Amino acid sequence: MHNGEHSRPKIAIIDPNTLSALGLKSILQNVIPIMTVDTYGSFSELAANGPDDYFHYFTAMNIVLENMPFFQEHKRKTIVLTLSLDTMSPLSGFNSLCTNVPEDELVRSILALQQGAHGHGEHLPPMPGILQQKILSDREIEVMSLIVQGFINKEIADKLNIGLATVITHRKNIMDKLGMKSVSALTIYAVMHGYVDINKI
């Protein structure tokens, strides 16, 4: 347990819906790559695995309601997964994450939570060196920042006074260098590294 495992903060997802738990796990690992994310299908599984070792619990609402004393005691660590914000009234005071939304919106909510919860990540351990390195050129960073703000290739070309083919090449290079396949993964990268303000996406 002590060989380096302690240095990676852990997040638990407690959700009987396996698909939802795995989907959230993959997004969280993109948003907070330094975290270890474990998934549990029930509260008893979490309870059997050292629940106090976790930094955060992303928990299905019914599980929070059924185990209120525990989550009330760990309110600051708990993020309730809800399908709509209207159902949150019995759980006022908890952070919540609406999972029934398009991917870009979900990513934005997680980033906002992450920034809000950790005051811009100041409580998180430092990023591994490889993630801190500047991988992209200044021009690629400009292009990436416009992509995640929702501009299309033609608009990016006009804004930066470069040809459309050049924008497409930059796009491909950015995705290749970062090993990313989707704009939402790129958005996470851009916000986490401070290249784009979350309010612009």
Question: Could you describe the 3D structure shown?
Answer:
This protein is α/β, with parallel strands linked by helices and 201 residues long. The protein has 10 helices and 5 strands. It has helices at residues 18-31, 43-47, 61-66, 68-73, 103-117, 129-132, 138-148, 153-160, 164-178, 183-192, and strands at residues 10-14, 36-40, 54-60, 78-82, 95-98. A 5-stranded parallel β-sheet has the order 2-1-3-4-5. Helix 5 runs parallel beside helix 10 (183-192) and helix 7 packs across helix 9 (164-178). It is elongated and about 60 Å long. The relative contact order is 0.11. Mean pLDDT is 83; it is low at 1-5 and 118-123.
Count of DSSP-assigned helices: 10
Count of extended strands: 5
Radius of gyration, whole Å = 19 Å
Strand numbers in spatial order across the main sheet: 2-1-3-4-5
Helix and strand pattern: EHEHEHHEEHHHHHH
Q: Helix/strand-derived class?
A: alpha/beta
Low-confidence stretches: 1-5, 118-123
Give the strand content. Answer: 5-15%
Q: Averaged pLDDT, please? A: 83
| Helix content estimate | 40-55%
Sheet with most strands? 5 strands, parallel
Question: What is the first-to-last residue Cα distance?
Answer: 39 Å
**Shape from CA axes?**
elongated
